[in-house]
Amino acid sequence: MNKFFAKLPFKGLAEKLIPAGARTKVPLLESIVIPFANQIVCGFVVLIMIVGIASCGGKSRSASGSASAPDSGSSSGAESRAASNVETVSESDFTFRLTDDNQGVIILRYNGKATQLRFPATIQGFPVIGIGGVRDSGNYPNRTVTSVEIPEGVTFIGNEAFSVSTALRSISLPSTLTSIGERAFEGCVALTSISLPAGLREIGELAFGGSGLTSFPNPWPRGIIALPFQLFLGSKLQTAVIPEGIIYIESRAFFECADLTSITLPSSIRYIGDTAFARCRSLTTVNIPESVNNLPLNRISQDKLQWTGFVHNAFEGCSNLPLATQVRIRQIIPNARF
Questions:
Q1: Average pLDDT value over all residues in the chain
Q2: Residue closest to 183 by CA, chosen among 143, 133, 127
Q3: Comparing 16-20, 104-108, 140-144, 244-248, which segment has the lowest mean pLDDT?
Q4: Cα–Cα distance, 25 to 4 (Å, whole number)
Q5: What is the secondary structure of 86-137 as a DSSP string?
Q6: Residue 214: what pLDDT?
Q7: Confidence (pLDDT) at 298
Q8: Alpha-helical runs (H) found in the chain
Q9: How far apart are CA 209 and CA 187, in angstroms?
Q10: Three-state SS at 7
Q11: Phi/psi at 307 (nearest 5 deg)?
Q12: Angle subtended at Cα 203 by Cα 199 and Cα 207, rounded to the nearest 5 degrees
């Protein structure tokens, strides 16, 4: 043991502390006390070193464990969460039928449980050309799907196809789409915006009635010159900048849009129908181009869009319109009621 301690760097510590004179006078110091003291001091230092090394090793293992465990757990948790959100959608999840010409497929209903849904472009080798509505013995009221992607090749969305899909927040429409049916998105209260493809040629009545849309779709398809009957009735629209090219605003198109505060009319407007903006009680701004003047009602054809002119009760019930705005409206609708 003495030989072991003698090799340590602390050897001679006691000798430095005890003067040489004292060691000479007391022989026991040199023979017994000093070696014993050296052993105690060295032993204490070695013990501290051992405890320190053990402590560092424990922290290292703990740090290693804590670093690797959450990493593994986090990865596993993320994968688990991702797996729970990604559900395989197969052809068997849909109800569908052949078109009358046997050239394509119309999807009538989705029967699965995915929350993020991508419709297939083909089923059993036939191209999907439409999302059917009630007239096709199917529609799509779904209260769990939050997003929908409709593939290229689909040309129409049927009547009430997505009506009352209350969880639907986003929908991607294909450039091939030409028609949106009546009430197609009625009651989609979580749907706050929508992008319409440039090639769209027809939108049915009440297509966005009671929806969560907060602003008028922009850009607007140039092929659609009329806003249909009750198009945005009771929706959450806050602003409506109606683009140039729109000629007709049909009856009740914006009826009872309680959050609507601002409207901008285009210079192309030639008809505003019965109660088109009626009961929009938050409406305070109506921007009317200087080029728009009084246009009396006039029946011009037997077609659906058969009138020109502005109906006197178009803004009836818009009680918060400033007086100056009421004056401007009466310049184009002399007997307008508010």
A1: 81
A2: 133
A3: 16-20
A4: 28
A5: -----GGGEEEEE-TTSS-EEEEEE-S--SEEE--SEETTEEEEEE--GGGT
A6: 97
A7: 72
A8: 2-6, 13-17, 20-25, 27-28, 34-85, 323-332
A9: 6
A10: coil
A11: -120, 155
A12: 135
Whole-number pLDDT of residue 255: 98
Report the distance separating Cα 186 and Cα 210, nearest Å: 6
pTM of the full structure: 0.71
User: In this structure, are residues 277 and 300 in contact, taking their beta carbons and an 8 Å threshold?
Assistant: no
Q: Do the beta carbons of residue 179 and residue 199 sit within 8 Å?
A: no
H helices, E strands: number in the chain: 6, 18
Per-residue model confidence as pLDDT tens digits over 269-299: 999 999 999 999 999 999 999 999 887 777 6
- Please answer whether residues 165 and 133 qualify as being in contact, where contact means their C-beta atoms are separated by less than 8 angstroms: no
Alpha carbon dihedral 100, 102, 106, 107, in 10-degree steps, equals: 130
The string of pLDDT tens digits covering residues 31-70 is 555 565 666 655 555 556 655 555 555 444 444 433 333 3
Sheet of 248-249, strand order: 226-227, 248-249, 271-272, 307-310, 298-299
Q: Which residue has the tokens 């009546």?
A: 182
Domain ranges within the chain, ordered by starting residue: 2-85
Q: Are 5 and 38 in contact (CB under 8 A)?
A: yes
How far is 207 from 146, CA to CA, in rounded Å? 19
CA dist 214 and 192 (Å) reads 6
- Give the span between the Cα atoms of 118 and 146, in whole angstroms: 11
